[in-house]
């Protein structure tokens, strides 16, 4: 059940770095974790599936998702927290995975775009709404837009067009599909929040 | 990115011990949105990192006391920004956080770490191609005479004109906040006004905390001008950008409608969060009108020293002060 992934994260420099690892001295509690610069075992769930990886603390969650777990739906845009393409949910809250050292998600739950649709492939209503509203062109930012849009609705920040625009401002779209993205989030928020349409 | 050793202490006491025993240059990792970013750029290269982002002892938000709000250093920016009591009684604090970064980053970044956010100067972040005294002491400053549109009007020197980029610290400075800091020598309290330093001839030094000291909490005195407050932030785009000019403003009126308390601090225009007591003094004892607000703005920017491309921020800033005071005044009930 548990996926065990070993490797150097595709960075050939890592092997050489192992010679210069330093540890920080002992600490009092058994729960404390001390890692060398080389590897620290990290467990978390990705879309509900348990994962155990041995990580270099330098590795970003984004790189681990894409390069180690094959979850390539999450995209690398700027890799510096400025574009939102790498947005995922950590314990249900949206974060940018590029600025998250993967070791920080130890014991936590990560949800990526691959975990949004039903197991049988039925798309989430927000994904359907992106299609219906032509809310993408090249599609590169779309997984991040969807993850951010889902969180925006769940946070209760989709009450008006202005509020949606504000709370999606961390997700850039170079194609300029913003009007469609706004419409998709607005429509889905109404649908999900309306008791009439539930069930 | 350079290799580093990584420790996750389970308690605050263990974090203090780890920092006390750590080698020089060890960094505290919280939300990671500044440190990890700069490590990717090879601008920060700590030999060791102590990760405090999940220490429960740093997480508390306490807005129940009538005289003081307290925010654990590890509280997330989003949680303080969305706190209903903060939004009602101290809008400047909530707005300064809500207007900083995206919701994703606010979910990650902590209110303690945010105080120590490093400059967004493009030459600093740009790497070795650009001389930068903050990054490489003695190499020079590319911004002086260079592209300095976003750079400081106040607190700059011959070595560095980089702007302090944060918003939260500007709001805290305006309202006399203090931070409690823990280290191997015990706990001490530092006024936010004594936390950041101007670059002088040592631009690498940005604050007065020692390397083995950790911010535990931020305390803000509750005051009537907190309710009559706003954080007014002018950006190149409407959302998700650093300030060209920002103003933390608060006012309180006496029963005759005369200003009895006024707070004005500026962001985006100085090398550190910048309070303007002279501008505050313009309004105290006066009525808040368009004309007196304008005078306060002019006083706030009276000592501005622009470079080659940032003089536009003086008039922009004067107007931003006036607008901020108008919003604050409406909230204060005048």
From TrEMBL, chain A:
<keyword id="KW-0001">2Fe-2S</keyword>
<dbReference type="InterPro" id="IPR012675">
    <property type="entry name" value="Beta-grasp_dom_sf"/>
</dbReference>
<dbReference type="InterPro" id="IPR036884">
    <property type="entry name" value="2Fe-2S-bd_dom_sf"/>
</dbReference>
<dbReference type="GO" id="GO:0051537">
    <property type="term" value="F:2 iron, 2 sulfur cluster binding"/>
</dbReference>
<dbReference type="Pfam" id="PF01799">
    <property type="entry name" value="Fer2_2"/>
</dbReference>
<dbReference type="InterPro" id="IPR052914">
    <property type="entry name" value="Aldehyde_Oxdr_Iron-Sulfur"/>
</dbReference>
<feature type="domain" description="2Fe-2S ferredoxin-type">
    <location>
        <begin position="40"/>
        <end position="116"/>
    </location>
</feature>
<keyword id="KW-0479">Metal-binding</keyword>
<keyword id="KW-0411">Iron-sulfur</keyword>
<keyword id="KW-0408">Iron</keyword>
<protein>
    <recommendedName>
        <fullName>2Fe-2S ferredoxin-type domain-containing protein</fullName>
    </recommendedName>
</protein>
<dbReference type="InterPro" id="IPR006058">
    <property type="entry name" value="2Fe2S_fd_BS"/>
</dbReference>
<comment type="pathway">
    <text>Alkaloid degradation; nicotine degradation.</text>
</comment>
<dbReference type="InterPro" id="IPR036010">
    <property type="entry name" value="2Fe-2S_ferredoxin-like_sf"/>
</dbReference>
<dbReference type="GO" id="GO:0046872">
    <property type="term" value="F:metal ion binding"/>
</dbReference>
<dbReference type="GO" id="GO:0016903">
    <property type="term" value="F:oxidoreductase activity, acting on the aldehyde or oxo group of donors"/>
</dbReference>
<dbReference type="InterPro" id="IPR001041">
    <property type="entry name" value="2Fe-2S_ferredoxin-type"/>
</dbReference>
<keyword id="KW-0560">Oxidoreductase</keyword>
<dbReference type="Pfam" id="PF00111">
    <property type="entry name" value="Fer2"/>
</dbReference>
<dbReference type="InterPro" id="IPR002888">
    <property type="entry name" value="2Fe-2S-bd"/>
</dbReference>
TrEMBL record, chain B:
<dbReference type="GO" id="GO:0071949">
    <property type="term" value="F:FAD binding"/>
</dbReference>
<dbReference type="InterPro" id="IPR051312">
    <property type="entry name" value="Diverse_Substr_Oxidored"/>
</dbReference>
<dbReference type="InterPro" id="IPR005107">
    <property type="entry name" value="CO_DH_flav_C"/>
</dbReference>
<dbReference type="Pfam" id="PF00941">
    <property type="entry name" value="FAD_binding_5"/>
</dbReference>
<dbReference type="InterPro" id="IPR002346">
    <property type="entry name" value="Mopterin_DH_FAD-bd"/>
</dbReference>
<dbReference type="InterPro" id="IPR016166">
    <property type="entry name" value="FAD-bd_PCMH"/>
</dbReference>
<dbReference type="InterPro" id="IPR036318">
    <property type="entry name" value="FAD-bd_PCMH-like_sf"/>
</dbReference>
<feature type="domain" description="FAD-binding PCMH-type">
    <location>
        <begin position="1"/>
        <end position="225"/>
    </location>
</feature>
<dbReference type="InterPro" id="IPR016167">
    <property type="entry name" value="FAD-bd_PCMH_sub1"/>
</dbReference>
<dbReference type="Pfam" id="PF03450">
    <property type="entry name" value="CO_deh_flav_C"/>
</dbReference>
<dbReference type="GO" id="GO:0016491">
    <property type="term" value="F:oxidoreductase activity"/>
</dbReference>
<dbReference type="InterPro" id="IPR036683">
    <property type="entry name" value="CO_DH_flav_C_dom_sf"/>
</dbReference>
<keyword id="KW-0560">Oxidoreductase</keyword>
<protein>
    <submittedName>
        <fullName>FAD-binding molybdopterin dehydrogenase</fullName>
    </submittedName>
</protein>
<dbReference type="InterPro" id="IPR016169">
    <property type="entry name" value="FAD-bd_PCMH_sub2"/>
</dbReference>
């Amino acid at each position: 059940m548990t996926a065990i992934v070993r490797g150097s994260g595709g960075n050939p420099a890592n092997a050489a770095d192992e010679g210069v690892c330093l540890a920080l001295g002992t600490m009092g509690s058994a729960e404390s974790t001390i890692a060398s610069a080389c590897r620290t075992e990290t467990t978390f769930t990705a879309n509900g599936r348990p994962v155990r990886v041995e990580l270099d603390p330098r590795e970003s969650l984004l790189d681990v998702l894409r390069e180690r777990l094959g979850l390539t739906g999450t995209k690398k845009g700027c890799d510096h927290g400025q574009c939102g393409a790498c947005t995922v949910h950590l314990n249900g809250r949206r974060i940018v995975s590029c600025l998250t050292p993967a070791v920080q998600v130890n014991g936590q739950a990560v949800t990526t775009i691959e975990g949004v649709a039903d197991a049988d492939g039925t798309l989430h209503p927000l994904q359907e709404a992106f299609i219906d509203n032509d809310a993408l062109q090249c599609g590169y930012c779309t997984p991040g837009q969807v993850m951010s849009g889902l969180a925006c609705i769940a946070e209760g920040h989709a009450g008006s067009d202005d509020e949606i625009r504000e709370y999606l401002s961390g997700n850039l779209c170079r194609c300029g599909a913003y009007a469609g993205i706004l419409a998709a989030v607005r429509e889905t928020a109404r649908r999900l929040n309306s008791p009439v349409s539930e069930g | 990115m350079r290799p580093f050793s990584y420790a996750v202490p389970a308690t605050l006491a263990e974090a203090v011990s780890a920092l006390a025993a750590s080698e020089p240059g060890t960094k505290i990792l919280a939300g990671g949105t500044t440190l990890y970013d700069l490590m990717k750029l090879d601008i920060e290269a700590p030999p060791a990192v102590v990760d405090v982002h999940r220490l429960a002892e740093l997480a508390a938000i306490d807005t129940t006391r009538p005289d003081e709000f307290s925010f654990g250093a590890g509280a997330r920016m989003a949680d303080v920004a969305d706190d209903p009591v903060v939004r009602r009684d101290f809008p400047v604090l909530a707005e300064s956080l809500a207007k900083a970064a995206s919701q994703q980053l606010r979910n990650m970044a902590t209110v303690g770490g945010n105080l120590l956010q490093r400059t967004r100067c493009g030459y600093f972040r740009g790497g070795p191609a650009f001389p930068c005294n903050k990054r490489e002491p003695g190499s020079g400053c590319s911004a002086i005479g260079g592209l300095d549109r976003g750079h400081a009007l106040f607190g700059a020197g011959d070595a560095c004109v980089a702007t302090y980029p944060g918003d939260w610290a500007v709001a805290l400075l305006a309202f006399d906040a203090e931070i409690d800091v823990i280290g191997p020598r015990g706990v001490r309290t530092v006024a936010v006004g004594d936390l950041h330093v101007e670059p002088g001839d040592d631009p690498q030094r940005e604050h007065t905390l020692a390397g083995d000291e950790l911010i535990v909490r931020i305390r803000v005195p509750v005051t009537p001008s907190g309710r009559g407050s706003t954080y007014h932030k002018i950006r190149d785009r409407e959302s998700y950008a650093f300030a060209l000019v920002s103003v933390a403003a608060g006012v309180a009126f006496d029963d005759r409608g005369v200003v009895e308390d006024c707070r004005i601090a500026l962001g985006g225009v100085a090398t550190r969060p910048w309070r303007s007591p002279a501008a505050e003094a313009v309004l105290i004892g006066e009525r808040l009108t368009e004309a007196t607000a304008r005078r306060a703005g002019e006083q706030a920017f009276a000592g501005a020293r622009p470079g080659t491309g940032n003089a536009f921020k003086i008039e922009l800033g004067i107007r931003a002060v006036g607008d901020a005071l108008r919003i604050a005044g409406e909230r204060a009930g005048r």
